[in-house]
Amino acid sequence: MRKLSMEELGRMSVEAFKESEKIPIVVVLENIRSAYNVGSVFRTSDAFRVEAIYITGYSAKPPHKEVKKTALGAEETVSWMHFANAGEAIAALRESNHTILAVEQVEGSTKLHQLNWDGQTKIAVVFGNEVSGVEQSTIALCDGCLEIPQLGVKHSLNIATAAGVVLWELVRKKIP
Fold first, then answer.
1. What's the angle, vertex CA 124, arms to CA 59 and CA 137, rounded to 5?
2. How far apart are CA 150 and CA 142, in angstroms?
3. Distance between CA 45 and CA 71 in Å, rounded?
4. Do the beta carbons of residue 79 and residue 122 sit within 8 Å?
5. Omega of the bond prior to 63 within 30 degrees of 0, cis?
6. Distances in Å between the alpha carbon of 130 and those of 15, 158, 160?
7. 71 and 95 in contact (C-beta within 8 Å)?
8. Among 11, 30, 52, 131, which is most buried by a count of CB atoms within 10 Å?
9. What is d(CA 115, CA 54) in angstroms, rounded to the nearest whole number?
């Protein structure tokens, strides 16, 4: 085995990416305190060609030095919008007929691997603060909650890691 060169990977240009069909997923970031986590979510969202990122509250947004450092240019390819709070973002998502799911451990949550998503229906996934998670008031606005099953002691993941797990599970069946 040998590593593939950048040319062999056949990466599309920024322009081609912006014009390409996106997976109908919007990532909502609620009060993410680390700009590095925000940048990492941009990079993951680029990798899985999501529709957009909605940044809410005090989460860092481009242009920001730490977002840029971990996004590695994905802040230029992935569409994003900032909202004062998650409620405003959810209201906008409702207007465009998205199903809205918080990624949180709650009573009656759907285990991520048990979600029946057709890959066509517009969906939004809400990720919360590194310490407090998705706010209860935001959960009340959602259609449901997704939970990443965990087997260890901590029962929590870094938000950037959680976003990678959730986005991979949502798009993996659409990858040829």
1. 60
2. 22
3. 10
4. no
5. yes
6. 33, 7, 9
7. no
8. 30
9. 22
The set of residues, in sequence order, having a beta carbon less than 8 Å from that of 88 and lying 6+ positions away, is 56
Residue with tokens 């069946």: 173
First to last CA, the chain: 21
| 166 close to 29: Cβ distance less than 8 angstroms | no
- Give the residue among 69, 157, 76 at the shortest CA–CA distance from 112: 157
- Say which amino acid occupies 148: I
> Which residue, among 149, 108, 103, has the nearest Cα to 126 in the 3D structure?
103
Q: pLDDT digit of tens for each residue in the chain (176 aa)? A: 999 998 899 888 999 999 999 999 999 999 999 999 999 999 999 999 999 999 999 999 999 999 999 999 999 999 999 999 999 999 999 999 999 999 999 999 999 999 999 999 999 999 999 999 999 999 999 999 999 999 999 889 999 999 999 999 999 988 87
Helix (H, G, I), strand (E, B) or coil at 128: coil
Residue 82: in which H helix or E strand, if any?
strand 80-83
